[in-house]
Amino acid sequence: MTDCRLRAVRAGHLFDGRAVLGAGMVLIEKGRILDVDTTGAAPPAEAELVDLGPDTWLLPGLIDTHVHLAFDASDDVVARLVAADDSTLLARMRDAAARALRAGITTVRDLGDRGYLSLALRQEIADGVRPGPHIVASGPPITTPGGHCHFLGGEAAGVEAVRAAVRERHDRGCSVVKVMASGGVLTAGSTAHLPQYGFAELRAAVEEAHRLGMPTAAHVHPGASVVDALAAGFDSLEHVTFLSETGVEADLLTIRSIAVRGVVVGTTVGSLPGARPVSASVLACADGVRAVRARLHRAGARMVAGSDAGIAPGKPHDVLPYGIAALAELGMTPVQALSAATVEAAAACGVGHRKGRIARGMDADLLAVSGGLLSDLSALREVRAVFREGRRVR
Q1: What DSSP designation does 195 have?
Q2: DSSP 3-state helix, strand, coil percentages of the chain (rounded to 5)?
Q3: What angle do CA 232, 347, 358 make, to 5 degrees?
Q4: φ, ψ (nearest 5 deg) of residue 298
């Protein structure tokens, strides 16, 4: 629920999503940013002042471009999801969303739920029934019969079935279309380094989605699926690991094409320190995947911060700050890494007109943290305050 009071939030450091502004004050009214002041002016007499102190950084609320609220970050997320009825699963999703919000993640793009439950949760949050992040929802991902994450209910075989699946997501009110172009590691019988859909199905998904005004995201691991999804016109490519049967085989020409075309790369980075990898194959390929992502960055690809939160114990729904730090380890500057989780992430999720920046007219979704943020991105975990549409939630 939007807070209608006039509020002035003052901090020693402002990061607006693109640049550091120094000390400043953000004026908030009716859930939106009314003004941003860096002159040291006094707040309006009628405003409630929240002075966060000189050692505090105020930045846009973080945006996780790839989460699964329906997965509970347990040792066996698939078995627990399959065993849960809808009411139990929705309750877990509420907890996951609340955990993300407490960490300052004020927008999430859910790229795979079951039974369109993320839409129900999105409505609860919008109605003010409970606090939570803004949810950009795909509904069940479109996948082949028996394919990766088929247990979420999005199976479709052939071009016409894929088109129909896209229309269903539009009619139900989804904000993005997610397609499992290749296999993945979570699903028994699925192989991450092999394609699931060919170019014809992928192109059909993009054509139908774009005709309906919907963006598209493709889950892609092997190079063949990356190439096909890129040629099909997907708006974002998730993972982009270039997995092969023997490891990681990056294609530099494809990497350059991704950068030149400006397609968003969802890097799905970040996990808790010391966490066990999702699978032995993921561990074996970790160094190669990091090298691919570093090459994508050097090539100038549009890389955004997504965590794949929920899929394993090392990826709880507040893990994104670790992913932002991981982007810096790939060669991004701290400002670039922070932008990848704010302004660039907002654009990738289709909410750049409302989210991701501290600027006049934007939603007042804000995160305040302590410490030297630009010298140590772990300061993102030192949360002082979180505001969602102007209302302080932590």
Answers
A1: B
A2: 35, 25, 40
A3: 175
A4: -65, -30
> What is the C-alpha to C-alpha distance for residues 283 and 297, in angstroms, rounded to an integer?
22
Query: What is the Cα–Cα distance from 7 to 232, expressed in whole angstroms?
Result: 47
In angstroms, the CA 231 to CA 355 distance is 29
C-alpha span between 384 and 31 (Å, rounded): 19
Confidence (pTM): 0.97
* Residue 364, C-beta contacts closer than 8 angstroms, at least 6 positions apart: 26, 28, 31, 32, 33, 387, 389, 390
- State pLDDT tens for residues 40-59: 999 999 999 999 999 999 99
Q: Which two tokens stand for residue 321?
A: 């700050």
Q: Which amino acid is at 292?
A: V
Who's near 33: CB < 8 A, 6+ residues apart? 26, 27, 358, 359, 360, 361, 362, 363, 364
Q: Report DSSP letters for 65-81, one per residue.
A: EEE-TTS-SSTTHHHHH
Q: Which residues pair with 247 in a beta bridge?
A: 244
**Which of 320, 360, 266 lies closest to 61 in space, CA to CA?**
320
Is 153 strand, coil or helix?
A: coil
Check residue 277 and report its DSSP letter: P
Tell the residue number behind the tokens 């993300």, with chain if given.
Answer: 100
Beta strand residue intervals within the chain, DSSP E: 7-15, 20-29, 32-37, 48-51, 56-60, 62-67, 105-110, 134-137, 177-180, 216-222, 236-244, 247-248, 264-266, 302-304, 366-370, 383-388, 391-392
- The model's pLDDT over 9-25, given as tens digits with 9 standing for 90+, comes to 999 999 999 999 999 99
Contact 355, 346 (CB under 8 A): yes
Cβ proximity of 106 and 365 under 8 Å:
yes
CA neighbor of 263 nearest in space, from 193, 206, 212, 197: 206
Which of these, 75, 82, 94, lies nearest to 150 by C-alpha position? 82
Dump the DSSP string for 168-194.
HHHHHT-S-EEEE-B--SSSTT--TTS
